[in-house]
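Sample A.
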Amino acid sequence: MERFYLYAAVLGVLAFILAIPMAVAANLLTPKVQRWWASSSRSRALKRLSRLEKQISELQAMSEWHLMARIMHAGVGFFFALFMILLALLYFLYLNDLYLFAHNGFKLQSDITETDIVRKAERLIYIISTSSFIQGLEFHRLSVGLRQLSPTHRNKRLEDLKTDRDVLTQRLGVVDNSLPRLTAPHC
């Protein structure tokens, strides 16, 4: 059994060390895989092209005030989730103390048993993990909003979207009336 814990510890350390290189590789390969996947089927290509057109039009129409409102909304959500996590952790510490007192034979003022404490702690762990997930989503929305607020980043993102659209259009020679900005390559 000790060997199992040793393997688990080594695997945990390796996962921690390899997390950053794997994240960098994923960020570098994602656009290429998206382009390849979209170009492997005509229907996927049309769906991808319509999504690109929608993203381009949304990015062009978005004002700084709209971005600030998005950032404020994401910031409030982020800090609310953080507040929920901190409250849940404090309550978890309280439940842990109650459990230790009940487990060691101390008489508690309320009629609560060890199993009740364990059930409450399990529900609390669910709340903490859900709040952490929500906090991660809100942090992502916050960082995207802050990046889009920068005119240079916004222009670069717009150019990247247009390049993706043009590459996909040229690769497949797609012309569709529902996508007015798409034209066939000129010969």
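Sample B.
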Amino acid sequence: METFTTQVHYAANTIRSLTDRLIAQGWKGVDLWDVDQGRYSDRFLRAIAEGYAPPASDPKAARLEPSHPATLQQAYFDHCAPNSAISNFAFLDKALVTFVEEAPLYYLGLSPQREGLLEAVRLWRKLDNREEAVASLQRAPRAVQAAAGPLDDLKIDQSLLQFIEPIASFYSGYPQQREALLRLVQRWRQLPDRSTTIASLHTRTTAETPIQMIDPVLILFVQQLPPQYQGTGDQRHALTECFGFGMGCPRGRKPWGSWASTHSNCRAIALQKS
């Protein structure tokens, strides 16, 4: 462990390994995490202070030497000292569940949304990197995956939505589950850090995408329309509706036979505005 990055990697995997053992022994989410304080529970900190020797089957975790419980606890409290006005974090789990329940409804395939869901997959499934998260979305054997080639964005999106849709019902308040959903919100909302993400959930739990993120995507979509336009009925219908809304024409779909007058009105409006 010569580099700081490697040390952090092993430390995180060691805590994960210890957590897995305690869960296997019957510990629940409330045993590991103090919901009101928004931090690891005193009981879990005492378990860390006792030290831990990971099994030989877990080479990514390191041996954890015993430490003084009070010293460890104080060091952890100092590190987790709140830097916001929030004094009680009991709201957080409910806010996360609300957000993740809405995520499939507001998913548009935007890069921050996709990366947020991939991070949620990675942390929820206790994987090391993005590549492993993407690979885990492929249910076929590795040999079949290699023959099929890498997933494109469309297939990734489909797999991500299949992962996220039922996730709220599986949420049990375990630390890695909470961090997975927090990272999802952070990436989705393009926020700088964990504390800012929690503060944003304190005031707004919806997964609705801000209009500032949608506008560039809409403009890019419109720019790609001309070479793809084939004059089909559906395409013409969609563009006419778009034109009508854009020019301030009366809202609502009209039968094709009555659209001539609507087109005339829209054209008149367009000439007035040009």
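B remarks: Residues 92-211 form one domain. The CA atoms of residues 230 and 236 lie 9 Å apart.
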